[in-house]
Specification:
The chain is an alpha+beta fold. It is 31% helix and 32% strand. The chain is built from eleven helices and 20 strands. The protein has helices at residues 8-19, 59-69, 83-86, 125-133, 154-169, 191-201, 248-259, 262-280, 319-326, 337-347, 400-417; strands at residues 2-4, 24-29, 42-54, 74-78, 102-114, 117-122, 149-150, 175-184, 206-212, 215-221, 224-229, 232-236, 238-243, 289-298, 302-312, 334-335, 358-362, 368-371, 376-380, 385-394. The protein has a 20-stranded antiparallel beta sheet that branches.
């Protein structure tokens, strides 16, 4: 069923409210950011007619089997710790969320929104449309402030960052992404209200609300991990961050400073090289290219430096092979990739889990699109545990204090949503 609507924003809100009453939901929203690789403005997958849960070991094989049994739309996520299946790595850091490493479901109902047009794919399409139209448009409740704690004190973070720089000086790695967790215990939230506020304060092109059972991913991600469009693979790593200015003139000066900042440029180009290398494992020979280098994109809280790397996929590979060959995203690991991931397990105090992983979809035509799970709140309602992590790139030239401040800048929108301005 294809139909037209007058107010897409209102429709999305009502549709998500109706969808959130089901046990499984995946809502992906571009927030009207221009993107030549996007197939739709928003996707809502509702209810699971079949699903798969997996952990590192044979999770990709399980997913491949699930995909062959469900060739239509499927949505889900890859947790960062699937790295342990791909490489000889382990994860033994603190984990209160207890999310699986992989979860996908084939939806009972699917809605695609593009402009003022919606497409409903379901056994009973009128049931879906009626359910949304007749659902009471509840007011989003006000949120109470939440007591946020950190796994690192500021001094502890600075000491750890400087020790990581010693490893860089010794040549163990060149660059890494060092992450820290902020959390709240024994807390009850309205996940939909939290996501709605986050998506209002910090609308980003790869936002998402994901629910399965009592578990939630509330994402304001600005970053694409990997997309497949026909025979092309597209990766868009983000490395390089600057705050927004108060005035238009100040904002422009900050953007120019970011564009010429040697440390930020170095970060970006090292990760671009890593992503290029990752894509060679899935590419037809000689097709890997950098389409755009050091593009500055502006979001509500900050400016980011984004590059675009592309290739043509090898005819002998499946979409799942392509994801496995590039996972996790280079912007969240470092270089050399395996050494950086192994070292961060020593310095970080929390298991990353879904954070640093990817959330998205596979479509019936063999394409897919996955974000990088950053700027994201994770919530286990059964355990009443809320968590979000932030990280920044440590290089030889990094200033530990500035990296700590960058972490807080990246956490700014989430802290505001949760009723805190500073930590």
């Amino acid at each position: 069923m294809i139909t037209h609507i007058n107010n897409p924003q209102h429709f999305k809100q009502k549709a998500l409210q109706w969808a959130s009453t089901f046990d499984a939901v995946c809502y992906l929203d571009s927030n009207n950011f221009p993107d030549k690789y996007s197939k739709f403005d928003a996707l809502i997958a509702i209810g699971a007619k079949s699903w798969i849960t997996g952990n590192a070991g044979n999770a990709f094989e399980q997913l491949a089997n699930f995909r062959s049994e469900n060739p239509g739309w499927i949505t889900g996520f890859f947790g960062y710790d699937l790295k342990n299946e791909i490489e000889n790595l382990t994860s033994s850091n603190h984990d209160e969320l207890n999310f699986p490493d992989l979860y996908f479901f084939a939806p009972k109902h699917l809605i695609l929104l593009k402009g003022n047009q919606i497409e409903i794919i379901a056994e009973d399409e009128q049931f879906v449309l009626n359910g949304i139209q007749n659902f009471p448009a509840d007011q989003i409740p006000e949120l109470s402030a939440i007591n946020i704690q950190s796994r690192f004190g500021k001094t502890e973070y600075l000491n750890a960052a400087n020790k990581i720089k010693e490893h860089i000086s010794r040549g163990d790695i060149y660059v890494t992404n060092f992450c820290q967790e902020f959390f709240a215990e024994n807390v009850m939230i309205n996940p939909l209200a939290v996501f709605s506020k986050l998506n209002t304060i910090s609308p980003n092109p790869f936002a998402g609300f994901f629910k399965w059972g009592d578990n939630y991913i509330l994402s304001a991600s600005p970053e694409r991990f990997l997309a497949k469009r026909d025979e092309k693979l597209i990766s868009q790593p983000i490395k390089g961050t600057a705050k927004r200015g108060i005035t238009v003139e100040e904002d422009e000066i900050i953007k120019q400073q970011l564009r010429s900042n040697a440390k930020e440029l170095q970060e970006n180009v090292m990760i671009v090289d890593l992503v290029r290398n990752d894509l060679t494992h899935s590419a037809k020979q000689g097709t890997v290219k950098v389409e755009e280098l050091f593009e500055i994109r502006s979001f509500n809280q900050l400016h980011q430096m984004v590059s675009t790397v592309m290739c043509e996929i090898d005819d002998n590979l499946t979409p799942i092979d392509a994801i496995k060959n590039t996972f996790p995203m280079g912007s969240m690991t470092g270089a050399p990739k395996i050494s950086a991931m192994r070292l961060m397990e020593e310095f970080e105090r929390s298991k990353r889990g879904v954070y640093s992983g990817a959330m998205g979809y596979f479509s019936p035509d063999g394409d897919f699109d996955f974000n990088v799970v950053i700027r994201t709140i994770l919530y286990n309602a059964a355990k009443k545990y809320l968590s979000f992590q932030v990280g920044s790139a440590i290089t030889y030239h990094a200033d530990a204090k500035k990296e700590y401040e960058e972490c807080l800048l990246k956490a700014k929108a989430i802290l505001q949503v949760l009723g805190q301005q500073i930590v």
